[in-house]
Amino acid sequence: MKCFFIGCFLFLCVSKPGRAEIYGHNYGPVDKIVNAATAFISSLDPAQRSAVVLEYNKANAGKWTNLPCGLQCRQGILFASLNVVQLDLAKKVIGAALGKLPDRGTDQAMQILAADGVLGANRQGYSSGNYIIAFLGKPDLKGTWQLQLGGHHLAVNLTFNDGKLAGASPLFMGLEPKSWEADGKTYSPLKDNHAQLVAILASLTDEQKALARLDKGYDDVSVGPGKDGQFPAAKAGLRIGSLSSKQKAMVLEAIRTWANIADETSVKSLMAAYSKDINDTYIAYYGDINLVHVKDYVRIDGPGVWIEFACQPGVIWPKEIHYHTVYRDHIRDYGGNFR
User: Fold this and answer.
1) Which Pfam families does the UniProt record give (predicted)?
2) DSSP assignment of 169-215, as one string?
3) Are residues 148 and 81 in the same domain?
4) 59-80, pLDDT tens digit by residue?
5) Of 137, 163, 328, 337, whose CB has the highest number of CB atoms within 10 Å?
6) How many helices (H) and strands (E) does the chain have?
């Protein structure tokens, strides 16, 4: 058997032609993320590297937004500035970190980028190239670091600590148009998020709806960019512990849809925590339970999980609504490192 050092504390050992084994530590999801990140960073010139790998601190961690302002309000490197090889390597980082499930994670994020291409065909300043990637701290299997992926209608923040996912939030996703067609296929990347919330609300009795209903609507998500830790002091709405087992399962599946912004293996520990807390989690809403009008709104608020889904007026298509949603965690935002 011959072994070769291939970086990141890994050895590639070949015992038979076509068969490879990894030694040094278990080859898991975070190993793949680190390897992909290392390959991408190695493809950059020194100036690009200095823009991509930044210090891990609270100020940098919280510097994200959903506004279409490129590097004026973000850090990192724009996709549009990368060459073909570098862009492919950046997408491999995203694929490793955000997972392979259809309409979740990587697939969902790439569709949101594509939506900006649709906007760009109708209004100057929007483009799938106006998105950034950045690393806060050096990607490694030891220590703490954060992956940022962001642009208009998308802000992904994944935090890793000693080779494990420590937090998959804050996550912001938005969408305009809600759906579109391209190459004979219909795209609607927030369709499942919307449908699962509608199904939960539809399952409630009239009495439960009355308990879940909020007195006012929201123009936007309330704990969005620049509002780290600004959760309401008290829970509002209907306690999930009062619902049936089937309804509880529906809420957990909805939560999973947001948490799956990270790879599905790493998300298991997050979902175990949310499942344990489900009875003390609340759901609240305002407006139409079908979430079809401006100011229609839903919130899921637990000891950990926080999800908001808001319907806003269209910007490019003002007669339509568009979606804003945020996933946060009272405990695990930024891996719980800045509480």
Assistant:
1) DUF3500
2) --EEEEESSS-EEETTEEE-TTHHHHHHHHHHHHHS-HHHHHHHB-S
3) yes
4) 999 999 998 887 778 999 999 9
5) 328
6) 9, 17
Residue 117 belongs to some domain of the structure: yes
What residue ranges of the chain have pLDDT lower than 50? 1-27
Q: Which residue spans within the chain are E strands per DSSP?
A: 2-7, 10-16, 19-23, 53-54, 77-78, 132-136, 144-151, 154-161, 164-167, 171-175, 180-182, 185-187, 238-239, 282-286, 297-301, 305-313, 321-329
* Distance in angstroms (rounded) separating the CA atoms of residues 331 and 12: 38
Look up residue 89 and give its two tokens: 């390597």
Count how many domains the chain has: 2
Tokens of 294: 């401006």
Distance (Å, rounded) from C-alpha 300 to C-alpha 285? 9
Rounded to the nearest 5 degrees, what angle is found at the Cα of 115, between the Cα atoms of 110 and 117? 100
DSSP 116: H
Nearest to 177 by CA among 108, 122, 258: 122
Q: What is the pLDDT of residue 76?
A: 96
> d(Cα 202, Cα 30) in Å, to the nearest integer?
38
Nearest residue to 139 via CA among 260, 36, 26: 36
* One domain, residues 177 and 201: no
Asked if the peptide bond before residue 170 counts as cis, ω within 30 degrees of 0, the response is yes
Residue range of the domain that includes 32: 28-182
Decide if 295 contacts 218 (C-beta within 8 A). yes
The rounded distance, in Å, linking the Cα atoms of 253 and 26 is 29
Instruction: Give the pLDDT of residue 308.
Output: 98
Same-domain check for residues 219 and 319: yes
Distance from C-alpha of 137 to C-alpha of 154, rounded to nearest angstrom? 21
